[in-house]
Amino acid sequence: xxxxxxxxxxxxxVTLLSAMPSFAQFLPQTPIxxxxxxxxxxxxxxxxxxxxxxNAYWQLTDEEWTTYEELKKKSPWSVWExxxxxxxxxxxxxxxxxxxxxxxxxxxxxxxxxxxSVTEFQTLYDKERTIVQERYVEYIQKRMPTLATLKPFDKLxxxxxxxDCDVHCRSLVTRILKTQAKVDIFIIGAADEKAIFKWxxxxxxxVERVKTKExxxxxxxxxxxxxxxxxxxxxxxxxxxxxxxxGGGNQVVAI
Length: 255
Hints:
By secondary structure, the protein is α/β, with parallel strands linked by helices.
């Protein structure tokens, strides 16, 4: 019985909705022709101005703004969760089609101005970001060596944790080895030589370069902590790469 009644109700609603004319039928059928009264530059300039009253930003009169504030407090829109602009809310309650068109026109112009302003700012930001980034890279390269500035005759110290060399670790090791610099690798936490060889195998360390001592595999024995302390820096996150200076000191290499 309940299912039968529900079916009747649904059928009634569908019939009622299908019988209702669409909203478009109530709108005037005369095509809307907009003749620009100002240039695009003037339009952009108009919406870019600073104002002392909030209504001026929306191109609304004091009376219209008062009406909007009353609607915002007392109308259903004060209860419904919405993001209606003052222009949209005034349009909802306007009985004049000309007013509705005016509000829609201002809203459209504001949207165009907003899009233009955001695009303009983003373009300027991208250019300035490139300049700042280039200056930063130049500064870092002068202050701190990077993999790109290393030379084959440089001496490096690479500190890593014992265990398997993961994807990030292998990628870093590959980039370091491409510099052709001499690398002393210190495996922190390695209990024995077997642990060192296991790490080297997982990192794909070339055996021939180990035999020629271009690469050495070593226990840490506190060297990492001592090197960090000598540079008066916080202990770097592992893996960490140091470049040995001519005076026997160390520089952190940006990796």
